[in-house]
Task: structure prediction
Amino acid sequence: MEYRTLGSGQQPRADFKDDLAAFCRLDEEQRNTIVEWFLSSGTYELYEPHLPPTIAASTLLPEQFRQAAGVIKNLLYGWQTHGLELQDVERDLLLLGCDAEQTAILSSALDRLHSTKEQVWVEGRKEFERSVGLPTIDDVNIVWNARPAFGGDAFYYYDSVSNEALYDTFLGLVYLATMEISASDNNRDNKQRIAIQMNEQTFERLLSGMKRAGDQLKVLKMRTKTVSADAGEPKGGK
Result:
């Protein structure tokens, strides 16, 4: 059985049908809120730190929004990628086991979103390039600690005839930042974690370096603006 929205030889993931049903279970107002979000969004990012204002003001729970909007996003992406007609998408929905009512609900939403499918595809390809290849950052935590300094080590204890051992002499505090970086690959399966420490001077260098990198990005975007504008119209379907 071949699903046209997925491409030749591809099969839907195990929970795809559940996601379709989740969108259909929403009430009409909730579904309309998701459709309006697509019509007004520019990036279609589902996992920003804060929910879009229209979603936050609705009765949708965050997980409801991400699950339901995610499956619509996937359908729009496949619709555009493979140059399909809406009837082709409806065929796939029936093959996936959606009943007549569910198919009608999903088809109505997709029909309203016809104008967004090309941009959903463009943003999807950009997101792929941002995540493919090397692991990408999932989270960064920075914690400051005040570490005591003593006159000697506890493990390597050095004593001498001429100098009194100072291992229990408190000399003050040193301030250290611990930065923990969590990253994963494109499939989110290969997770990595690294933790490093920095003194105050290195932390300030990091902040300055990030500021300069930001300045370089502005220059790069300015220099490549013409190239970006000349990229041409996406070629993805009807």
The mean pLDDT is 89. The two ends are 24 Å apart (CA to CA). The chain has two domains: 16-131, 136-229.
